[in-house]
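Example record used in the benchmark description.
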Amino acid sequence: MLKKILSKLPRKSQNTDSFDCGGVDSGNISTNFGNGIQTISCTNTFSSRLSVVKRVSSAVFPASIMTGVEAVEPHLSFKDVSNQQKQNLFISKLNMCCEVSDVNDPDKNSVEQDLKRQTLLELVDFVSTGSAKFTDPAIAAMSKMCSINLFRVFPPKCRSNSSGGEAEDEEPLFDPAWSHLQIVYELLLRFISYSNLDVKVAKKFVDHAFLLRLLDLFDSEDPRERDCLKTILHRIYGKFMVHRPFIRKAVSNIIYRFVFETERHNGIAELLEIFGSVISGFAFPLKEEHKIFLCRALIPLHKPKSVGIYHQQLTYCVVQFIDKDPKLACTVIKGLLKYWPVTNSQKELMFISELEEVLEMISLAEFQKIMVPLFRRIGSCLNSLHYQVAERAHLLWNNEHVLNLIAHNRQVIVPLVFSALERNSQNHWNQAVLNLTQNVKKVFYDMDEELVLACQRKLEEENSLSNAVAEKRRLTWERLENAASFQPPAVNVITPTNLVTCSVAC
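Model output (structure tokens):
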């Protein structure tokens, strides 16, 4: 009786055309591998018609990244899969791009390189459309792919110059793998800039170790790579607020090592360019940490010989600090005087230009604290035999703010530089410098004629006194020479006859 009842029940159709990979019937066998990835075993008929879902071993997709993720054939296009599977395909493609090939041999693995490049471009387009969802597995796969492709050890530097960094007259070196690296950097930038990125989740993978390796890449000799890194690090600093103190400390350590140890680094200009915008965002009053960064990192950066490579960015950072707190102008000028070059005329020109920018922002009270040593140094620059240095020093008087500071303190400043101007008028070889000297003297005459005349009389008295001392010294030496030439040397040498013995035993 039971058999008759069961025979009348409708049987399930065996037509496989009614199934697809999106809905597998309950007759299929479900297996769970040790890596935590659940896979579905279809019949041979399903496997021949549908190839969307791919079984991938744990050796290719680690459990830490692919846990709970259905692995999809990475060679498929995003257009060929359903919306539910695009996220899994995104992770599969990221893991496929973790393979690094040797680009120095163009004939080797050319097919794999082209496939990887095409896959990276697909990933960039997918993220650009906003379709990607950066979950824990996706962020882990992204950070792993970027780490494997970007983080590397640079070859030893073979530059001829010993000053470190790229010299201004040298051609930059370009990385042969840039065609791939550029796309990886583009993908990393779009990941960091993604509007729906959960920073609390991403910071677990974009951690301190990741940031340190990223900062190491700033020593790349390829300027294109450093430019990409500059943009990425700036976005990270803006988005990951929790990492800001660590980034500032890490950059400070790079500067310390460059200034006090190696004097070799290619990315100081880019790092300073980032910090130029960072400093402009500091709140007032400045934290003590920020002031320490100025005194211990930025000001000592004036010391290396290669300062010309990054001096423009350095000046901008210094000016931003003074804009935040004008009282720091005195500290900056003291630092400039400490590291003022003596034999490097080009470096001296840069220092005078930076000094003028600082003086434009200094207050009268702060200027009075530093004006005596400052104008002693400017007086030396006025007398420089290098005509460009002498010209640049004279042109400070063309700045209205500087001239106003000098006018308010002319009783102190004019006596400091008047002697230098007089020496230029009498001895300097360059006609342009002589003309500028006459202009500065005329400015002083118009400012305070009595003070100038008093300085001139004092200078004449000092010259007369020095001439008298020099003449006296000459006559003294002349008498000594005459006495030595006419008086015979002593021949009678008194020799002791009785030596007194010491009564005390030593």
